[in-house]
Design goal:
The complex is a heterodimer of chains A (about 325) and B (about 325). With about 325 residues, chain A is α/β, with parallel strands linked by helices. Chain A is built from 11 helices and 8 strands. Chain A has one domain: Rossmann fold (3-Layer(aba) Sandwich). Chain B has 14 helices and 14 strands. In chain B, α2 packs parallel to α8 and α11 (about 255-265) packs across α12. The chains are: A alpha/beta (about 325), B alpha/beta (about 325). The structure holds thiamine diphosphate and magnesium ion.
Chain lengths: ~325, ~325
């Protein structure tokens, strides 16, 4: 295991800043009516993919969910195309036909975004199987929520990956809620890591809001997968710092717990850590933040100025050729 | 009752949303029969179902009878089937119809077939409530109207109300029906308001409703396409075209007689639905009408369903994907 350098820590933090800045800008646009889209907040979960992304290669594969904007950014999906897709524009990753819940960008290895809870894990095992069969050295990372552990397909996929020892990392982003239901209200398991360990793969819980802890865990899991050591289940402990999606209520959330999580929210927390423990100067961070701000604004301008998909696009991409479609 | 009588009666009824009407039907059924219970994701208070169908009911009847589940659609439908095999009357909620795909083994291989496979020794009196997206930029996995898929599975009763009144009466009937019923609640209609009879109210399955009388063209539809069809008919009236709008309300059982009776008069038929047009429900209806009224129709039966594609996200494409009032009116003009 290599120690986390200041450069790496800063790169991870820059990704987190990009994610947060993009979210803040989208929320501002949604509030003012400048933008319309269904938006699933990733606020509070930035450190997980940012740290994972640091240890992945461009050709590695990733699968994520509707709550996946942070994963897309960290995997390297171009921000312009990502935002254009979220706005339903022809310049988006899916030409505006997929939307925020269905981003696919094979150029950057982002293979599937699913809107169906638990739908991504079996597919990730298949991606990893292809790497095992081809010997291409790629690793697949699949992100899903804690709530997805209640879906049967999740268990089938993890068991199969362990059996076949394919190079996949299961990243459970445990934000303590599945829609309106608290973790303790849908399972008696105290620890998902412990529950999934019984399938016979490496499984551990990690502080998903710490750059240092997340980076260490991600590196270990990815290195193990890449070197043929088999899959890992990472339970990344985090907290959903708001309602399920933009505009949804939070009355069922424990206000004290939410306030505590907000006080320890990962962007501010890791910024403090960089300054205090890593001796990074405020000026360095300020400059980086200004750069990111400008980059996000320019990407959004690109998205907003793009055209919607033309009507013909309704009929294309159903099959490989239009000839197969019924008249 | 004629549509006019119905309209008069309706004046006296209290007005509420379709979601409230669903809630009333469940409430009354739970009050009447202690063996009726609900299960599904986020259906307990304070949420009361993401579409509010069970709001207040866990508070009133307790969390034994209105129970939250994990995100486990197979287990939700399976548990409902199990309890129903011994005579209970579970109401399962699958948040969106697209997620039926996750539960389809329980729905299609078990709920639908257990009566037949057991030679009638067991039956599955469950109701599965589900909401149906569409028209809201929810994308390809949150917008599908899958009644055609359900109709292809012998053993399922398929219900899709378009008004609060119909939702209350049909859902109540579903709950006490001895077969598995799929009650489809369109998102675009859930918070529309209309008169609903107070107290116990049942509408039999398999009885279509004439939502507007007319003489020139018969427009057959259901679910969230009904208001689109009515808006088209309203516009056409001013152009001198009289359109009869038949709301099938249930697809299985299918009230084909209501369609034939109207078509015998108008001799022109258009079928409109949000389900895919190719191999869609309209094909079945068109085939029967064409067969039964061969030689009597003035024009070939027309169909308008959704385009044969997954549902696109961009609003500009999604509006082209589903039938809507302007294109429906165009199609009626071509027939008239
Ligand atoms: C199979 C399925 N059932 C229900 C839903 C509706 N739904 C969307 S997100 C969600 C909660 C998922 O919780 P979790 O897996 O913890 O992910 P999070 O949203 O917290 O990231 C639910 C129930 C769905 N999309 N798919
Ligand atoms: Mg969660």
């Amino acid at each position: 295991m290599t120690a986390l350098t200041n450069d790496a820590a800063l790169r991870i933090f820059r990704t987190m800043t990009t994610i947060r800045t993009t979210e803040n800008r989208i929320i501002r646009g949604l509030n003012s009516g400048e933008l319309t889209m269904t938006f699933y907040t990733v606020r509070g979960q930035e450190a997980i993919p940012a740290a994972i992304g640091e240890h992945l290669r461009r050709e590695d594969y990733m699968v994520t969910t509707y709550r996946g904007m942070h994963d897309c950014i960290a995997k390297g999906v171009p921000l312009e195309e990502l935002l254009a897709e979220m706005c339903g524009k022809s310049t988006g990753t899916s030409k505006g036909k997929g939307g925020p819940m269905h981003v696919s960008d094979p150029h950057s290895g982002l293979m599937v975004t699913t809107g169906v809870v638990g739908g991504g894990l079996p597919i990730a095992v298949g991606l990893a199987l292809s790497s095992a069969l081809r010997g291409d050295g790629r690793v697949t990372v699949v992100n899903f929520g804690d709530g997805a552990t209640s879906i049967g397909a999740t268990h089938e996929a993890v068991n199969l990956a362990a059996l076949w020892q394919v190079p996949v990392v299961f990243v459970c982003q445990n934000n303590r809620y599945g829609e309106h239901t608290k973790f303790a209200d849908y399972t008696r398991s105290a620890s998902l890591a412990e529950r999934f360990a019984t399938y016979g793969l490496s499984a551990r819980a990690v502080d998903g809001n710490s750059i240092e802890a997340m980076s260490e865990a991600a590196e270990a899991a990815i290195t193990q997968a890449r070197s043929g050591g088999g899959p890992t289940f990472l339970e990344c402990m985090t907290y959903r710092l708001g309602g399920h999606s933009f505009g949804s209520t939070t009355e069922y959330m424990d206000p004290d717990e939410l306030a505590r999580a907000e006080a320890e929210e990962p962007v501010a927390r890791n910024r403090r850590w960089l300054v205090a423990e890593r001796g990074i100067g405020e000026d360095v961070l300020n400059q980086m933040e200004a750069e990111v701000e400008a980059q996000v604004e320019s990407a959004l301008t690109f998205a907003k100025n793009s055209d919607p998909p033309p009507p013909e696009e309704l009929h294309t991409d159903v099959f490989s050729t239009m000839a197969a479609s019924p008249r | 009752m004629t549509p006019q009588q119905q309209a008069n009666a309706a004046v006296a009824d209290p007005v509420c949303t379709l979601s409230d009407a669903v809630n009333q039907a469940i409430d009354i059924a739970m009050e009447e029969d202690s063996e009726v219970f609900c299960l599904g994701e986020d259906i307990e208070d304070p949420i009361g179902g993401v579409m509010k169908g069970t709001k207040g009911l866990s508070t009133k009847y307790g969390r034994d009878r209105v129970r939250n589940t994990p995100i486990s659609e197979q287990a939700i439908v399976g548990a409902a089937i199990g309890a129903s095999l011994v005579g209970m009357r579970p109401i399962a909620e699958v948040m969106l119809m697209d997620f039926f795909a996750v539960a389809m083994d329980q729905v299609a291989n078990h709920a639908a077939k257990l009566r037949y496979m057991s030679g009638g020794r067991t039956n599955v009196p469950i109701t599965i409530r589900t909401s149906v997206g569409g028209g809201r930029q929810f994308g390809a996995q949150h917008s599908q109207s899958l009644e055609g898929w359900m109709m292809q599975t012998p053993g399922l009763k398929v219900v899709m109300p378009s008004t609060p009144r119909d939702a209350k009466g049909l859902l109540y009937t579903c709950i006490f029906d001895d077969d598995p019923c799929i009650h489809m609640e369109a998102l675009t209609l859930l918070f529309t308001r209309g008169p609903v009879p107070a107290g116990r109210y049942a509408i039999p399955l398999g009885v279509a409703d004439v939502k507007r009388s007319g003489d020139d063209v018969t427009l057959v539809t259901w679910g969230w396409q009904v208001p689109e069809a009515l808006a088209a008919a309203e516009q056409l009236e001013s152009e001198g075209i009289s359109t009869e709008v038949i709301d099938l309300r249930t697809l299985v059982p299918l009230d084909i007689d209501a369609v034939l009776q109207s078509a015998e008069r108008t001799k022109r038929v258009l079928i409109v639905h949000a389900a895919t047009q190719f191999a869609g429900p309209g094909a079945e209806i068109a085939a029967v009408v064409s067969h039964e009224l061969f030689g009597e129709l003035e024009k070939p039966v027309e169909r308008m369903g959704s385009v044969y594609s997954p549902i696109p996200y961009a609003a500009e494409l999604e509006t082209l994907h589903y039938p809507e009032r302007l294109r429906i009116a165009e199609a009626v003009r071509r027939l008239a």
